[in-house]
Amino acid sequence: MNMLGIESLDLAEKAGQLLRLLGQAERLSILLAIGEGEACVCHLEAVFGLRQAHISQQLMVLRDAGLVTDRRDGWNIFTGWSGRKSTW
Asked: Which residues pair with 78 in a beta bridge?
């Protein structure tokens, strides 16, 4: 019988966390809308027809996971892919 090592279990746990994070359709849609560029919450609000507060909450989850970063430009905050290697 092939036994999984602790490293394999840790990797599986991290993969499960990422899949749960992306399992929420709105978060995945936001990532796809950002694409390779960046987007302001007001742009995402217009695309999805969702409230600003809801989009901001989803972006916070993605930011906490290290998938996106923010950049302020005047009154607007633009969100884009983090560009760094994921800890997943």
From this structure: 40, 71
Task: Please give the Cα distance from 81 to 85 (Å, whole number).
Answer: 11
25-34 vs 52-64: helix crossing angle, rounded to 10? 80
Residues with Cβ within 8 Å of 37's Cβ and at least 6 positions away in sequence, in order, are 80
* Euclidean distance between CA atoms 7 and 63, whole angstroms: 25
Which residue(s) pair with 71 in the sheet? 78
Q: What's the fold here for domain 25-81?
A: Arc Repressor Mutant, subunit A (1.10.10)
Whether the model clears a pTM of 0.70, i.e. scores above it, the answer is yes
For position 28, what pLDDT does the model report? Answer: 92
**DSSP letter assigned to residue 67:** S
The answer to whether 38 and 30 have CB atoms below 8 angstroms apart is no
All structural domains of the chain with their residue ranges: 25-81
